Protein 1
Amino acid sequence: MSGIKDGSHYTLKAMCCGKELEDTGVLLSCPDCSEPHFLRASYSSHLVAGNSDEGIYRFSDWLPVRRVLKGSGAPVTYRSRALAAKLGMSNLWITFNGWWPEKGALMRTGSFKECEAYSVCARIPEAPDSGTLVVASAGNTARAFIRVCSENSIPLAVVVPEDNLNALWSEEEPAGCVKIIASASGSDYFDAIALSNKLCSGSGFYPEGGAKNPARRDGMGTTVLSAAVAMGEIPEYYFQAVGSGTGAIAAWEASVRLEKDGSFGPNNMKLMVSQNSPFQIIHDSWKADSRDLLPLGDDEAREMAHKIDAKVLSNRKPPYSLPGGLFDALKASGGDVLLADNAEAREAGRLFLETEGVDISPEASVALASLIMALDDKAVPRDGKVMLNITGGGTELYRASHKTKACRADLVFSNDAAPEDVVRETAALWS
């Protein structure tokens, strides 16, 4: 399998100081830098995509991984005919992440979060000294990591808002190495992140790292690699709905890497990202031309998070401001941030089902709704080379033919729970 070695096919570069670092499999920052920053993987070879039956690891040349895990799928990119005709577009390419066997899409959790889960977990040493991986999620990421860690015997504590537990479903019960921790009802994704930080304050637990994990970003960046391989060039416009914006940052990093590779032409890709109004902190900060996120109160954020259909887009502390974050990626690409409300997104989801023939997630519907508006506003030409990242789809198709069950929380904590209590009670779940 191409690119799978022992981790020697890449190094990590600290974007704060430029230092080259050898990877430990769990490294999230330069030990000599105190300012917030990203580590970015540098690969030793050109991209040579493998066969589709290799799953996500067909792109392993450009993944910071050291082993292959079973069960992965990869993004599938195809040129749209029916939806493109409906929208009057001549060059619309859809990158589909989810369950759609007819197209070769085999992500059983129905989300591109499998891309990051299979990359992150394949980067971790088989027996990490740090103990149990901790992942905070609003739903899709949790579902993906539960599956990957259950099937590959990787100890995991996944932390989600209790009100989002309905997004956690699977055919099988989570394996014994996987535990689900919830922040109490009324909380949001940021509260789940805060709870995960409490858990990581104790020994025996280590953070996945979110956007700071280069394997997460490069795993999600495979969507753009898929598009470039299918199109033979880098797209001109990239559409995706965002909560944290990590997927869009990953897309931009992938486009820069593709241009440097030299096989896919110049990089003119504009990031066209969208939010589900009224949860629109990234949109409002961008439109104010502010590197700093505009103020958003905790109670206001929780209220707005409960109003939107696309719950996974409700991150109130996204990696927007730090160097190399979403603000810089938008500036570098000449991109923009768009908005779609619930009604617009629902109509877009119905249109995709009607024209392409499969259901898509609320957040993917937000992305399509924003594309429709950009076309109507002439912000994007109808003959432009557009990549529409359908970040989730086929869950209804999958659940129609597979018996799934809801996952239950092993523990629920209030937002004021003491860190030592969180660590002690969670650790006891494995005893």
Note: DSSP finds 14 helices and 18 strands in the chain.
Protein 2
Amino acid sequence: MIETRLLKNRDRYLNKLLGFRDSELVKVVTGIRRCGKSSLLKLAVARLKESGVSSDQIVEMNFESFEFGKMTADDVYAYVKERVASGKRMYLFFDEIQRIDGWENAINAFRVDFNADVYVTGSNACLLSSEYSTYLSGRCVEIKMLPLSFREFLDFHDVEVRDVASVFGGVRKRAVDKDGEQYDLRELFGAYMRFGGMPGVANVGFDQEKASALLDGIYSTVVVRDILERENRRGRRQITDPALLRKIILFLADNIGSNVSVSSIGATLANEGLLDGGRKGAPSANTVQAYVDALVESFFFYEIKRFDVKGKQLLRTLGKYYVVDIGLRNSLLDFRDRDRGHALENVVYFELLRRGFDVAVGKVGDAEIDFVATRADKKIYVQTTESMTSEDVRKRELAPLQKIRDSYEKIVLSLEPGLDDSYDGIKSLNVIEWLLDD
């Protein structure tokens, strides 16, 4: 039986976070609520103590807690100042600090007034926008945290992936839990595609009822705390209709990976009768844009731009949106088994982000490439599809890549790669093995 533990290492993020230890930079961990930011801070504290840092050098404040939630920025400063150990290096951890008005002043003061190493988390992208950069421009580093990758998902379920000899030569991967019980990787990937990678969901196993309740709670928390409450605190009145916000969320969730024009969302909702009966006409494009921007700021959806491969420039029209966790999408859409191709795209997109790539949709003439992924040391073109066994599908997926004349790597990721592992230099890879090879 697969079991879980309450706190698992997230080495990818922990090593990056502590790689900046004792630098003057404020470490800022961002990401959607419940993706593991609080646990990451606890892991960092534990690692510090293992390295010899004493408890009196560490101050932890979680602003989701009632103990700290009513504080002002001045209260936060006073609380920390009272606990500063004279003559010692301090390590300050602030979880969900954006809930405190004027928090920027306190964080900047800690950096200036004390011998302190500062770590903060936040669930809104505005943490590092103009609200923050005014105070700490060039003096902070962002660690972008995402829900569990497929490999982390297996780790949270105490499943190890081993390479074993194949009867056809070479090796194949096998999933084994700590009791030696074997699992089919394709089935485990199916569970990941169904339940997603929110750590709390992984802790309840494969119970759809419990998973659905947890995902619904995450959704409600993001919408209420990170969008509606935040708008009220900022004194803005652009986002005042929770029902409209939910309709837009459902629309984007149902259309992940599709070309979307924000100006057309309201019209589509109105035409399909998805707005409340009392509403006359569609909301304005500006209104819809404000709602979509809020969803992107809260890390619920990620926007991806289109890139003209031949013209080598980003395009302003018809971007796409992907939901931060496929389990959240499934919960919102009542776990309907539909549009698995775009769901697979969604998983691949976030894996590319985890691996440090900047990602765009590729445009080559009238053809489209799912992802153009670039980073300092590498560039790859990626197509995703459920299967490459059909000749028609192969032609469709390979054609855009064949139009590109440069020498960068080109790959097609699928659940059924077919017999050939390469087509004119274009690799055909098993997406599960690619996800595990991180």
Note: The radius of gyration is 23 Å.
Protein 3
Amino acid sequence: MKPTRIALIPAYEPEEGLIGLAKTMAERGFQVLIVDDGSGAAYAPVFQSAAAFAKVLRHEKNRGKGAAIKTGLSWMEESLEGPYTVVTLDADGQHLPEDAARVCAAAEAEPDSLILGGRRFEGKVPLRSRFGNGLTRWVFRLSTGVKVYDTQTGLRAFSRRLLPELLEVQGERYEYEMNVLMRWAQEARPLREIPIQTVYLNENRGSHFHALRDSARIYWEILKFSAASLLSFVLDYGLFCLFSLLTGSVVLSNAAARLISGAVNYSVNRKLVFESRTGVLSSLVRYALLAAAILALNTVCLWGLVTKLGVNRYLAKILVEAVLFAVSYLVQKRWIFRKKEVA
């Protein structure tokens, strides 16, 4: 049985182009679902016209793009039966119907995967969009180790089986879409990107993305692990320097500092960064094994740099910590705090 195709369009104060988008998607065989995210009475005529081609859900007040997407997904779970595939599109005309159909077809072929429609930002692209996407791409890859060219794309497709997990992802506004990517990267779930055309109408003036406020939300989600690790490093380095001055022993000072900073790092990562639902005992045992391995590597490398190569002990500490940062992150996200997959 071929899955039903659903086009989900979150919309806030849309232009009349939304009507044409809904009509075209319906003509292509999609069931169209629009969520009016509190646009107000002034935009009622647009939604009334679009309702000829789509079902329209409404928020009484503006709640954000993430909330609108989850409202649409919740309605599907409660109202639709049988297999279906969902494609999300922005209401501002940036996504072409033919690209939406291609991304949806890929999701039908790979129902366990999240499919992204990735723009390549070729041609006439507003400078702030080109710079913002480039920066986010770099930070995301540095933080997760996963390469995604267009991290901010709103054109995404997925099968019905992924809805429960997508509804669990936190975030009510633009950060929701980044949180989805962070969760997929954290759990090493299937993720594929399909190139699509880059379209910006009227210098992207139809977008409601707030450069400072919404970017801060997005980057905060990406940088939580880095911030926690930085806090742990500052504590670890400060204690190492203190104990080193008191004892004169590189090995003893490193072990004592690592023990204290490791306990702090475990607590912060479990509760704030990975928001792990695994039991404390299970994750603590795994973290202790990782901490012991990292401590051994850290101590051996530090001892070798200081005693064998003559590197300044304080500089050597920074070098070793920088190298082991990536190792610690990957092990924590893929093994220690890995979230259980939805059956």
Note: The radius of gyration is 24 Å.
